[in-house]
Amino acid sequence: KECFMDLALFPEDQRIPVAALIDMWAELYGLDDDGIEAMNIINKLDSMNLADVLVARYNLLLIFFFKAT
């Protein structure tokens, strides 16, 4: 619940790099640094249609963005 509420810190309809959320949640809530717990939360929010996970490709790198709906 706290992780979802943190999305209110960002402007509406803004793309948020998933790496930024993982780092923020690791610091605030002591989640694992490898991001597995955070990715589980992101996937759960996505499956509940509370947010969208977007994949962008830059210079052969896949970058995941998170967008609250």
Automatic annotation (TrEMBL):
Domain of life, source organism: Eukaryota
Taxonomic path: Eukaryota, Viridiplantae, Streptophyta, Embryophyta, Tracheophyta
Name recorded for this polypeptide: Disease resistance protein
Source species: Trifolium medium
UniProt cross-references to InterPro entries, sorted A to Z: WH-like_DNA-bd_sf
